Q: What sequence folds into this?
């Protein structure tokens, strides 16, 4: 089951306000129960990561476990100075300091697209008016997106092909979801990377070109029932798209352990 977030893909744009990650998570629980699933697992990255964590918080007796490639593991004393442009707190390991530097870089240089969508999503008319504008936005809107996508058009595709990129742009264009997908930034009131108190089993994939590469030490503290962790040498923010083999192996390993535990 791969549900489509309202306003994305083939889901129609919301006709009412309030479709934030919390409401979406509640809708996913209702959806799964209507389909006859009393228990299930969930995976998410990007906005899906936020929705998936809310699933864990809202329905811990129904959701057996989650997997995330953009997890909420950042301690408060790290997140504060990272978002404000401050200095790293003392005592961080090299891996933790690298994650701090990634976060600081993201918040200081690469947040413009999110700020625009969070404040004035309806002004992004170009995303539904021009396929060139839509392509330009997708190709170079956030940290490392251009570096990840550009090689596909230079004969060195890595994890992506030209068709992969064009298929993604075409999905937004044909469904006219460029603007409606931006509204989730406006609706959201939650943090992305902060620890939220998830108590159920969790698996984490740490990719080097994610917005930040979650250190194992942070993952272990954020998720008391961390059942799987793997740090990769390749891959970025859209891991399921860019590195599907590595991604699927991690997801299977996470939930395989839960099948054994709950057998």
A:
């Amino acid at each position: 089951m791969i549900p489509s977030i309202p306003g994305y893909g083939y889901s129609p744009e919301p006709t009412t306000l309030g479709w934030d990650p919390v409401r979406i998570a509640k809708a996913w629980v209702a959806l799964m129960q209507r389909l006859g699933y009393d228990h299930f697992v969930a995976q998410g990255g990007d906005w899906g990561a936020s929705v998936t964590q809310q699933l864990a918080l809202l329905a811990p007796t129904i959701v057996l476990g989650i997997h995330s490639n953009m997890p909420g593991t950042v301690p408060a004393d790290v997140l504060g100075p990272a978002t404000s442009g401050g200095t790293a707190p003392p005592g961080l390991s090299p891996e933790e300091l690298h994650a701090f530097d990634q976060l600081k870089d993201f918040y200081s240089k690469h947040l413009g697209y999110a700020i625009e969508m969070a404040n004035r999503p309806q002004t992004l008319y170009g995303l539904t008016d021009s396929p060139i504008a839509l392509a330009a936005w997708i190709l170079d809107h956030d940290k490392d997106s251009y570096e990840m996508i550009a090689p596909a058009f230079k004969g060195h595709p890595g994890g992506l092909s030209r068709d992969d990129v064009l298929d993604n742009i075409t999905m937004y264009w044909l469904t006219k979801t460029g603007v409606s997908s931006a509204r989730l930034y406006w609706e959201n009131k939650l943090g992305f990377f902060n620890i939220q108190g998830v108590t159920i089993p969790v698996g984490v994939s740490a990719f080097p070109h994610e917005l930040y590469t979650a250190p194992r030490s942070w993952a272990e503290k954020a998720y008391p029932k961390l059942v799987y962790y793997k740090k990769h040498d390749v891959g970025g923010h859209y891991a399921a798209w860019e590195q599907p083999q590595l991604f699927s192996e991690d997801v299977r390993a996470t939930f395989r352990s839960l099948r054994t535990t709950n057998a």
Q: What stands out?
A: The two ends are 22 Å apart (CA to CA).
